[in-house]
Amino acid sequence: MAHLAQRRSENVSGDFYVDSTCIDCDTCRWMAGEVFYAAGDQSAVYHQPVNEQERLRAMQALLSCPTASIGTVEKPTDIKAVQQSFPIPIAENVYHCGYHAESSFGAASYLIQRPEGNVLVDSPRFAPSLVRQLEAMGGIRYLYLTHRDDVADHQKFRAHFGCDRLLHQEEITASTRSIEKPLAGTDPIQLEPDLLIIPVPGHTRGHTVLLYRNQFLFTGDHLAWSDQQHQLIAFRYACWYSWSELTKSMQKLLDYSFEWVLPGHGRRFHSDRQTMAQQLEKCIAWMENQ
């Protein structure tokens, strides 16, 4: 819960504000970029919502903030309606779960709604309002975890939904040693006809990405769009295993065709397949020069 007494001076006057507990995870800035901006090493409000859509996005960011650092001066009267807007549609049957976890440094998680069983990609907070929405959408069949950093409340989702958790064995720690489906090796794993898991060691030793229907690539902390560099990037200064292996893993993705990059950290990217391939090649060239 944000505290008005800790309201940052960088906020403009008005209802919404960010307090000094912000960890600079970027969540609010990409969820509601018309309201929040970077001010120093934290976020702040530079524009108060002036219409229904801006307010909805600002409230969604408020609920998604992993440290509850966003607050309002007036008690919101629309909180239940905002809770019911989650998961937030991205495209077709793919959704952003919101409710980011501090233990994952505000990483995004996603839901794929499938007749054969829904897939939760990385773990959000186990928020009761989100859980109710997921129940209404058919529950969770698989909880796919890209790597060790973004597992958050995986145990609570397993206990509640009985879902099978998937994580590469190189990423397993004390908190994940009970997962149902440990992954192994460096070859692609066809989980279902429409779900392909691709090992991409680099950011961490056992990092994997998930390709859904040859259209949506869920990339964890392997690949993301940078608004600052205006291109796809890997995280050079958050590479915990091997930059050279990360570069090789990125080259492997040239063998696949997709239209969406949906990361845990960083910005999403959507384009036609040809442009996506060109952007991936540009990313690799940039990586080779780092």
Automatic annotation (TrEMBL):
Stretches assigned to the Metallo-beta-lactamase domain: 106-265
What SMART domains does UniProt report for this protein, alphabetically?
A: Lactamase_B
Which Pfam families does the entry mention? Fer4_13
Q: Specify the superkingdom.
A: Bacteria
Which PANTHER family does this one have? METALLO-BETA-LACTAMASE FAMILY PROTEIN, METALLO-BETA-LACTAMASE-RELATED
In Swiss-Prot or TrEMBL terms, this protein is called Beta-lactamase domain protein
From which organism does this entry originate? Cyanothece sp. (strain PCC 7425 / ATCC 29141)
Q: What is the lineage of its organism?
A: Bacteria, Bacillati, Cyanobacteriota, Cyanophyceae, Gomontiellales
